[in-house]
């Protein structure tokens, strides 16, 4: 019995030693200290946290939900965003009928009139009506509207069309918008960790600047998308003016030729020229007689003189 009790006592001692060792091995670790000071130091830093750069993503179908704003994607309508503009100068027979025709075309293509101006100009004591109308038409109806507007005119005086590709700018704005939203979310986290009113005010000022930039980017994206969705056409209407009446051209009366006063100088000059011509002719004739005729006359004259001389001495 004593031996049995001794073994029980030894077992109790060993069991107590084992339990005490396990309790020491499983002692709870000290709880981590709060990191309030570290968060406060990070909030007080003047520099805004720089978000990780995000790669520029190609536009995808559907709408981009951003802060409650629905931003259309490029591929929702076409692969490219092209802002089209055109100007037409039409010469028409009736300005009022042409204005009505322009309004009819705008309604048929589901467009709208951006602005219009009507004025009058006087021509040959009558007032003629002029007009300038700026239209917004869907981009897929641009060519149809241009063709129908040309048909309203007697003659298209001038036509100009241009296009501007804004796809790259739109995609860049999408990437910038994503970066700004990431920055805004991180600043909001810092605002939640602010430990004082001063810290909250500083973070809130940075948050307001980022949100203002987000609104600007969203406004620019909406503007580009709307400008590409509706093309702008400016139509200038001019009436055909009657020609000016023809006026007879007066026949010019010939002016009388003035009679110059008499002067003896021209007569003397003419007489002197005539005398000089006569003397030249006489001198020329003498030279011809001496050189050409005289050699033929000398032998007969010599014979005649000799015969005469012989006859005279013989008698």
The residue fraction in helices comes out at 40-55%
* Approximate shape: elongated
Count of alpha and pi helical runs: 7
What is the spatial order of strands in the main beta sheet?
A: 4-5-7-3-6
Secondary-structure content class? alpha+beta
Strand fraction equals: 15-25%
- Mean model confidence by pLDDT: 76
- Please tally the β strands and state the result: 7
| Low-confidence residue ranges | 22-77
H/E topology pattern: HHEEEHEEHEHHEH
Summary, kept brief:
This protein is α+β, with helices and mostly antiparallel strands and 315 residues long.
Give a structural overview.
The protein has 315 residues and is an alpha+beta fold. The protein is built from 7 helices and 7 strands. The strands form 2 sheets. A 5-stranded mixed β-sheet has the order 4-5-7-3-6. It has a two-stranded antiparallel sheet with strand order 1-2. Helix 5 runs antiparallel to helix 6. The longest helix has 51 residues, at 264-314. The radius of gyration is 59 Å and the shape is elongated. The chain starts with a helix and ends with a helix. The model is unreliable at 22-77 (pLDDT under 50).
């Amino acid at each position: 019995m004593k031996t049995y009790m001794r073994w029980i006592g030894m077992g109790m001692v060993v069991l107590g030693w084992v339990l005490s060792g396990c309790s020491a091995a499983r002692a709870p670790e000290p709880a981590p200290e709060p990191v309030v000071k570290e968060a406060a130091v990070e909030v007080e830093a003047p520099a805004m946290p720089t978000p990780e750069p995000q790669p520029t993503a190609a536009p995808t179908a559907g709408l981009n939900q951003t802060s409650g704003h629905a931003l259309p994607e490029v591929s929702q309508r076409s692969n490219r965003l092209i802002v089209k503009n055109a100007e037409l100068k039409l010469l028409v027979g009736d300005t009022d009928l042409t204005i009505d025709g322009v309004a009819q075309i705008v309604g048929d293509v589901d467009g709208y009139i951006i602005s219009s101006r009507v004025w009058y100009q006087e021509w040959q004591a009558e007032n003629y009506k002029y007009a300038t109308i700026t239209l917004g038409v869907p981009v897929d109806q641009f060519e149809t509207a241009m063709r129908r507007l040309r048909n309203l005119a007697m003659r298209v005086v001038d036509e100009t069309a241009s296009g501007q590709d804004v796809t790259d700018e739109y995609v860049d704005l999408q990437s910038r918008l994503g970066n700004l939203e990431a920055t805004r979310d991180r600043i909001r986290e810092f605002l939640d960790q602010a430990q004082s009113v001063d810290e909250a005010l500083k973070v809130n000022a940075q948050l307001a600047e980022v949100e203002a930039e987000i609104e600007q980017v969203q406004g620019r994206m909406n503007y580009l998308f709307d400008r590409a969705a509706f093309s702008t056409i400016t139509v200038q209407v001019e009436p055909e003016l009657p020609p000016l009446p023809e006026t007879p051209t007066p026949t010019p009366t010939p002016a009388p030729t003035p009679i110059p006063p008499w002067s003896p100088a021209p007569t003397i000059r003419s007489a002197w020229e005539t005398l000089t011509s006569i003397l030249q002719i006489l001198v020329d004739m003498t030279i011809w007689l001496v050189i050409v005729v005289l050699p033929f006359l000398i032998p007969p004259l010599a014979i005649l003189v000799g015969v005469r001389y012989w006859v005279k001495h013989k008698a």
